[in-house]
């Protein structure tokens, strides 16, 4: 970092503005866990909630007193008082004080139309409301940040009004003026111009709070920083109302790796991918595979022409080294697959392939044939690895399903039945076993486990965490082929497997078998060779 | 549009660069369907594929000759020749000519390191390769666009080299120079500066092709346009390799609604949301609810404080009127279905609903309950209409499946069986019927037809043209609920129906039943009342 580097403050509002997003729901415990992580990662400010808006946020601030942050300051959020005359008894402001946070962020109207129509007050009255609200909180010993709601729209509409409101907050003692693009529709060049003007006028540090309604939240944030702003508000993974808030997961690496002359308090950017995943997990949301910097696909190369070149010199094909943000390069085995893709993949999986052998050629042919049938190994790397290991002679299936019967009954007066009956060859014997389930695929899963558990107690650890069905050749209607992708986990690792058939039950069973075989293969491979329990049959 | 408005050309590469994305897979038929839609929407150029890279793209270009575009020009894509000396016999260039498109887009290296390391040739040789490749295609009567691969990185590294390559393309006769941020890591201010320079130097129209690795693809595109570029390459929904291409679904409304003095050939921006959904459907990908402009949440207001204000004057809370892009405002107070939605939908279907009745309330409750179970009526309007007509008393089911048995057998030595046995109440009697099929769902379909054909010969006309399965609550693994969407046709009209269950067979049967009932309902409704064959039971 250069000596002149400008420190950019990171202000996270995942726990407040983030939770305004559709389907976003965080418990108090979730919020505490996330807050700790944010501090660990290196945020300067963590906005915990709006205490007087709901009891959950009040509880959060009480429990948060026990958190011991390494560097972050906790902030509570709320609006200016309702009436300028009675700020000292305003329930919202009192709620903010009761949250006992060192920093309080309050928002006020800086778009004249909002002041007039929503609050129904004069310009003077609004200015006084802002001034008094800020100075009251300040007089109680708190640092106060002022969020200028709808600033960019307000400035476009009436610059003197918008600036007057900012100056009221400065006079009241606010230490930061944060310009909010509340409706999220501003363009970067507008942000640049207005931030410059505000910096000239106010003379205190200026922040940016943008929303993604125009798909420009990250760009607007960067434009503000380039214009001189030094404080960034955003959320992890860009969660938030409508299209979301500015995504800190994209903004932070842009600041640290690309914007010259800027720095942050983040000490290990390499934990960025982990942080993103952690928040998705807590939210119980699937992560965005295409997310810049941290997505599973962010450094995944598919184009056949690229692959050999990527292997030669990856800096020519990647805008940053993925390790800098804790991500990694991947090469996708797809129908564009040539020998170099397969070799790369093998290398990635840590599998040595003899230079001079037909193995690669056989694998390429086998994979092509399967792809022609509708197989796809993106997201089913475990199935791919089994093919590879089988061809190399290091894997033999641990069992074989020799007969499958599934029986389903439902009806008004009938009993609902979802039964699977399997004959499974395992340990040299045929296990003939049946199970009921919640739907036919679940019944199959249960039956297969029942057949294997005595031979391979390790399969107990397998949890199926994701199940996807894609209909191929959709235009063939109900007789179309389907591809089933299953994601499994043993608590530490996850792996994906695939099956294809015109019969969805069959396709599911193929993916299930691969999942169990893969788990057994990896567990057994970890054992000394002598104990290898490959079946003798 | 102002008189001075600058026309921005839209170049869609969903069918080529888009398919480089992970999990993106389009059949030839899919590509043809999308191409037609893109033309209808108003794209100027549609890049169909890379003919010599795979047989699928070659087949596409053959079939695409029958498409009659209203305004778009079809483009094929490929690289410069391998050797400057033999452009006339280069298989890649010949493949491009054989695609018979009026426009050919070829890419060449404009980053010196790539030219040196990937191609292993001198600067002069690369310049000649570009010049000769372009001029050969041009001499064959095609318009040639030059995609300057890795231009921004190349210019940063060695401006004279990068510009020299552009000039070679111009000298060869290229009519557009498209600057590609191939690795996707450039910042908007860099794009601005370099586009300006290129415009000064080349003197021909300049385009921008950006990728989203820095979460800035849309911003970089806008920066290029503001700097004077007049041609935009991107994909629908931003699909594409790694983090995706620049998202045309975000760029187009930004151009048309925000960038002053610009226009496009799009004649009805109101179809934007539909276009986005259509492509997601074809890709069998869930749509991004948070997508700017078109996402389901893009105009969804959750903040309690906002809601009443939003209803008062929505322009204060929305950056654009959602109707401009075919989206709509939602208020997330309750579940999705409100009375006004239902009324709106009924009106759309041409169904009169009495003003004062409990019908609407009952429907709202019923739909809410179904949505809670995982139903969704986007793309399943026939199922929705049946609910509406049933509540209004104008529809009674034509039959009832009272018992379902499905039996599946497979195995090494066993015979493969996919059998469905149904008891169907129809015309006051129970039909007990069985059928074999190609997979269990196909067996069900056949059995149901067998049971109904004597009573309702009209069902013969029904063809199932699409069958889709989506797993809900994916994290529940094999016991998750699934939603089946079926699209049917009678040769003239198509209609969609839906079923939800933890049992995929059951979900499929529900959607099948709705499809047949809907067809019978519409056929019978067309008959005079006296002939109405509604069952008496």
From TrEMBL, chains A, B:
Positions of the Pyruvate carboxyltransferase domain: 8-273
SUPFAM superfamilies on file: 2-isopropylmalate synthase LeuA, allosteric (dimerisation) domain (SSF110921), Aldolase (SSF51569)
Enzymatic reactions: pyruvate + acetyl-CoA + H2O = (3R)-citramalate + CoA + H(+)
CDD domains (alphabetical): DRE_TIM_LeuA3
InterPro entries recorded: 2-isopropylmalate_synth_dimer (IPR013709), AIPM/Hcit_synth_CS (IPR002034), Aldolase_TIM (IPR013785), Citramal_synthase (IPR005675), LeuA/HCS_post-cat (IPR054691), LeuA_allosteric_dom_sf (IPR036230), PYR_CT (IPR000891)
Pathway(s) per entry: Amino-acid biosynthesis; L-isoleucine biosynthesis; 2-oxobutanoate from pyruvate: step 1/3
Pfam families (UniProt xref): HCS_D2 (PF22617), HMGL-like (PF00682), LeuA_dimer (PF08502)
Alphabetized GO MF terms: (R)-citramalate synthase activity; 2-isopropylmalate synthase activity
Documented EC number(s): 2.3.3.21
One BP term from GO: L-leucine biosynthetic process
Gene3D superfamilies noted in UniProt: 1.10.238.260, 3.30.160.270, Aldolase class I
Keyword annotations of the record: Acyltransferase, Amino-acid biosynthesis, Branched-chain amino acid biosynthesis, Isoleucine biosynthesis, Transferase
Broadest EC class assigned to this enzyme: transferase
Keyword check for Transferase: yes
Family, per entry: Belongs to the alpha-IPM synthase/homocitrate synthase family.
Name assigned to this protein: Citramalate synthase
Classification of source organism: Bacteria, Pseudomonadati, Chlorobiota, Chlorobiia, Chlorobiales
């Amino acid at each position: 970092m250069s000596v002149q580097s400008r420190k950019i403050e990171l202000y996270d509002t995942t726990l407040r503005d983030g939770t305004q997003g559709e389907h976003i729901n965080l418990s108090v415990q979730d919020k505490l866990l996330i807050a700790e992580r944010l501090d660990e990662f290196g945020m300067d400010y963590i906005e915990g909630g709006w205490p007087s808006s709901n009891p959950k946020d009040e509880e959060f601030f009480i429990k948060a007193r026990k958190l011991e942050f390494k560097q972050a300051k906790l902030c509570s959020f709320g609006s200016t008082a309702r009436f300028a005359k009675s700020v000292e008894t305003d329930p919202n402001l009192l709620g903010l004080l009761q949250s006992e946070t060192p920093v309080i962020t309050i928002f006020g109207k800086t778009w004249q139309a909002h002041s007039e129509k929503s609050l129904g007050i004069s310009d003077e009255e609004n200015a006084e409301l802002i001034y008094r609200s800020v100075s009251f909180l300040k007089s109680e010993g708190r640092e106060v940040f002022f969020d200028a709601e709808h600033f960019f729209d307000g400035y476009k509409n009436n610059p003197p009004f918008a600036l007057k409101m900012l100056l009221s907050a400065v006079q009241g003692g606010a230490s930061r003026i944060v310009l909010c693009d509340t409706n999220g529709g501003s363009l970067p060049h507008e942000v640049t111009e207005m931030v410059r003007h505000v910096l000239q006028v106010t003379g205190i540090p200026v922040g940016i709070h943008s929303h993604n309604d125009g798909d420009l939240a990250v760009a607007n944030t960067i434009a503000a920083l380039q214009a001189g702003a030094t404080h960034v508000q955003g959320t992890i993974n860009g969660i938030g109302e409508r299209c979301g808030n500015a995504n800190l997961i994209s903004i932070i690496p842009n600041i640290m790796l690309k914007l010259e002359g800027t720095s942050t308090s983040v000490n290990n950017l390499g934990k960025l991918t982990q942080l993103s995943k952690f928040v998705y997990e807590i939210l119980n949301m699937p992560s965005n595979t295409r997310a810049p910097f941290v997505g599973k696909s962010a450094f995944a190369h598919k184009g056949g022409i690229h692959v050999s070149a990527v292997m030669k010199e990856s800096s020519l094909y990647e805008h940053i080294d993925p390790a800098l943000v804790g991500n990694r390069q991947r090469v996708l085995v797809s129908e564009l697959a040539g020998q170099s893709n397969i070799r790369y993949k093998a290398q990635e999986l840590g599998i040595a392939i003899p230079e001079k052998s037909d193995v690669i050629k056989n694998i390429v042919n086998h994979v092509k044939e399967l792809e022609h049938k509708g197989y796809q190994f993106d997201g089913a790397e475990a199935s791919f690895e089994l093919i590879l290991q089988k061809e190399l002679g290091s894997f033999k299936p641990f069992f074989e399903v020799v007969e499958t019967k599934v029986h389903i009954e439902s009806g008004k007066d009938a009993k609902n039945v979802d039964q699977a009956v399997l004959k499974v060859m395992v340990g040299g014997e045929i296990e003939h076993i049946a199970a009921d389930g919640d739907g036919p695929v679940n019944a199959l899963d249960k039956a297969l486990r029942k057949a294997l558990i005595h031979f391979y107690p390790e399969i107990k650890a397998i949890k199926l965490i994701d199940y996807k069905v894609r209909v191929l050749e959709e235009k063939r209607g109900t007789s179309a082929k389907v591809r089933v992708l299953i994601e499994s986990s043993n608590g530490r690792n996850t792996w994906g497997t695939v099956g294809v058939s015109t019969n969805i039950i069959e396709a599911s069973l193929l993916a299930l078998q691969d999942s169990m075989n893969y788990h057994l293969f990896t567990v057994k491979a970890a054992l000394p060779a002598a104990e290898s329990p490959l079946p003798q049959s």
